Amino acid sequence: SGHVQLPxxxxxxxxxxxxxxxxxxxxGEGSPPDVTYTVRYExxxxxxxxxxxxxCKNIHRTSCNLTCVLPNLFVKVRARVKxxxxxxxxxxxxxxxxEYHLDVELAPPVLNVNVKENVIHVNASFPLATCVESFSWMxxxxxxxxxxxxxxxxxxxxxxxxxxxDTTALRGNYCLSARSSFQSIDFxxxxxxxxxxxxxxPKG
Length: 204
Prior knowledge:
Blueprint: E1 10-17, E2 20-26, E3 36-43, E4 46-52, E5 63-65, E6 77-85, E7 88-89, E8 93-94, H1 100-103, E9 110-116, E10 119-125, E11 138-145, E12 152-158, E13 163-166, E14 172-183, E15 187-189, E16 196-200
Antiparallel strand pairs: 1-2, 2-5, 3-4, 3-6, 6-7, 6-8, 9-10, 10-13, 11-12, 11-14, 14-15, 14-16
């Protein structure tokens, strides 16, 4: 056809990041400043049926969060994106297939540490989308004396559970760190969070 086409989006990637499934791309070289993007996705349950994503129609940003748009988190999906400017459109560009449940990448949890007399209460918060809250997210917690390599480990704690640690025998500076874990076909883990350190039972 004799139509001038817009440059297509580049680096189109469906990536699992910090508990979410997100389509990202970069503008095609020489894209006009007013360019917008529209995204659709396709599930392996129904190949050749590209489904609209209302929240990612004519958007200016270069990403689209598909996590809770996906009807089935246990089926591979892929997405595609095109650029639009006035009457002009680019060709669609497709991502690779990904499945949320198998490909999910975990972020470290954020630790909330509450120091009381002779105990510490620790819980972890996760930046989860509502549609994946029911998954069996867990976390592992480490406790160690600052400067020591000897870590006490608490493993497989359900996401909403608080760990209570008796600190009667502990004195000095202690640090806590946690990682998210998730059981799919194999165990997945995030990196450990930045340590949170607390001073316990200071003398006097």
